[in-house]
Structures are given as structure tokens and as C-alpha cells.
Amino acid sequence: MSKLDTLTQRYRSIVGDDPEGIWFAPGRVNLIGEHTDYNDGFVLPFALERRAIMAAGLRDDDLLVLVSLELDEVRIPLADLAPGVGGWAAYLAGVVWALREAGHDVRGCTLVMTSDVPLGAGLSSSAAIECAAVAALCDLHGIEATPMERAKLARVAENAYVGAPTGLLDQAASTLCRADAGLFLDCRTLETEMVPLPMAEQGFEMLVLDTKTPHSHVDGEYGTRRASCEEAARILGVPALRDVTDLDAALARLDDEEMRRRVRHVVTENARVLEALEIARAGRLADLAPLLDASHASMRDDYEITVPTVDLAVEEARRAGAIGARMTGGGFGGCIIALCPAGEADRIGRAVAEAFAAAGYDAPEWFTALPAAGAGRLA
């Protein structure tokens, strides 16, 4: 039975009728631009074929019925919606809350979802289900909202309802991306550009390898680094670290060595994103490799957000034939990406798995990725 059939059957078992539609939204990998989003900087993600899929329909009562095929079922009266409710269902309930806070008359509904975006891997599994819910609820209620407005609503759900202090990168990628392209996003102006990433055409594929070291954006490390960046910007007298134009002069004004490292990562990472943009515009995808390597070194040494499993995966992927590799996502675990010659990603993934076994780590999981389309309606 297909996933769509399974979703429809589960929905029918709850409601007694077919869903009013089926929507999806993908996870994403960030090609480059880590921890730059909340510093008003630049990012360049692309969407994955891994995605959340959601069967949905309105109810004639004021009840949210939220179902995950992988997890469980949660029922929440609309009157009880309030930030601070934990668990996976908070990401869906938060979307309903965000829409209602924005003035939309969102009614009771049934949302039945499944997702093959790995949890806790840095591939935006939460944004995928949020953006699928936004797409479903906007369509069901006739809410006119641009893709960027939908991404913002999903971010409100994650920031204000779930309590994860993320930027807009994840939700924008899940909503706006197109197949065979990356999304260049200026996180201050919210200007976007679709950048061609014809990997298959140029003889490449992307290995996405989950180290199986879970992470969470709600934990203290993410917030600590964000606060450090904001304090550095205050000391330097700039609105955000993206406004630092003379890195050496800025570092000389900071007394704290740890803060200097954080600033150096953000400023150099922004520069790498802008260089990657020019490379992609010129169609020279092989030239992205040294930028991926430099980004990982910066995250490891200056931002200090990698862990031994992630570092080993990057090193072994390069040793096995990847032309460039880096951690992707918020850090402290999760996934790496490795730009590989076409047909080599699976072999390189097996090489990393062998290195993990030799080091006594749990076995990683991996898949081959090409840029996919953003959120939409399937049926």
C-alpha cells in the first residue's frame, strides 16, 4: 500500500470520509550558510525529496485531531491552544495557533501526517511538517498567503509556540524551493533568488549522511551562540554581524576570545555563501567543494558546533572520494553533506559506515539527494 493510500485509510478511519486534500512539504539541506540566518546574513539551501505528507480536512467542532503514522494521535480543543505544549504535535498545533494569532478564523481540523525526513538529523523535519500544515490549512480555509508569508507563519509556530529560536532558513527552503535549484536567501531583506544546481547534468550527486547523533534546536547551545553573536554586534555597534565589513578590525575590538571565534565564523561564512552564489550562477558546481570544506573547518574550530561522529564522517567521505564535505544543520550532531561524483555517493556512504564501525560508533544512514521542489498539494 502506498503512503497516500495509508494516509487516506487512516484519515477515513477517524473521520468516516476521505480527506479534503493531501499536501506535502520537504526537508532541506543547507548547501552552505550555517548560523548566518539569525545574524541577518545569507543562506543557500535546497529542498530534498524526503518530505512530510499530510491528509487534511475541516471538522464541524472546535477540535484539532493531530495524527502521526509513525508516532501517535493527539486531540486538542482550539480553546486550549497555548505556547509551551511539548511533543511532536506542538509543531502542528503551533501552526493553527500562529494562523489564529494572525487574525485568520481557523476552525477545527483533522491532520494525518507521515514523514520520511529523519528526526533530529539537521534536515528540518520540524519545518517540513509545519510547512505542510500551513499549506493544508491555508488552502482549506481559503487564506491568501504568498510562499514567503507561509514560511513566516511556520516560523512563528516554531519560535513562539514550540520555543525553538530558529531563523527563517528552514521554513523558506521547505516552502519556496524548486527542483534542480538552490534558494539564495538574504535573511535581512528576505530577497530570494533561485540558483541553478544542475548536479546530475554536471556529473555530481550529493551524499546526505545521518550520523545518528541527534540534536535539538531547543537546547541551550544554539541559544548561547545566538546570544553571543547579538552581544558582539552590540559591542561593535552594528545592527547584526552581517554588517561587519572589516573582520580584522572587528576582532581587535573584542576582548573575549570565544566571541572572536564566533564572529569570525559568521563573517567568513557569509562571504562563502556569496562566493557560492557566484559559482552557482556561473555553473561551476565543482568549485563549490573547497567552500564546503572551509565551512566545515569554521564550524568545527570557530563556532564549535561539530562533534566527533560528524568530523569523522566528513574526513572519511573526503578520503573515500567526495570532492567536498561539511556538516549541515544547526550542529551538535545530525547530518553531513558530501559533493560526490555521480554514482559514487552510496560507495562513499559505505566507507563512512566502515569507519564508524571501526571507531565503535552506531551505524549511520545515508541517501543520495538532488534538489527537489518546495511545498505543495498532491491531491
Automatic annotation (TrEMBL):
Which PROSITE patterns does the annotation name?
A: GALACTOKINASE (PS00106), GHMP_KINASES_ATP (PS00627)
Q: Which is a GO BP term held by this UniProt record?
A: galactose metabolic process
Q: Which Pfam family, an example, fits this chain?
A: GalKase_gal_bdg
Name its pathway: Carbohydrate metabolism; galactose metabolism
Residues given in the record as substrate binding sites: E34, H35, T36, D37, Y222
Q: Which residues does this entry assign to the site Transition state stabilizer?
A: R28
Residues annotated to bind Mg(2+):
S126, E158
GHMP kinase N-terminal domain residues are: 91-176
Q: Where in this chain does the entry annotate a coiled-coil region?
A: none
**UniProt key word Isomerase:** no
> Subcellular localization, per the record?
Cytoplasm
Q: Does the keyword Phosphoprotein apply?
A: no
Q: So which domain of life are we looking at?
A: Bacteria
Residues that coordinate or bind ATP: S68, G120, A121, G122, L123, S124, S125, S126
Q: What is its main location?
A: cytoplasm
GO terms assigned for molecular function: ATP binding; galactokinase activity; magnesium ion binding
Q: Which residues form the Galactokinase N-terminal domain?
A: 10-57
The text of the family note is: Belongs to the GHMP kinase family. GalK subfamily.
Identification of the protein by name? Galactokinase
Q: Source species, please?
A: Tessaracoccus defluvii
Q: What is the lineage of its organism?
A: Bacteria, Bacillati, Actinomycetota, Actinomycetes, Propionibacteriales
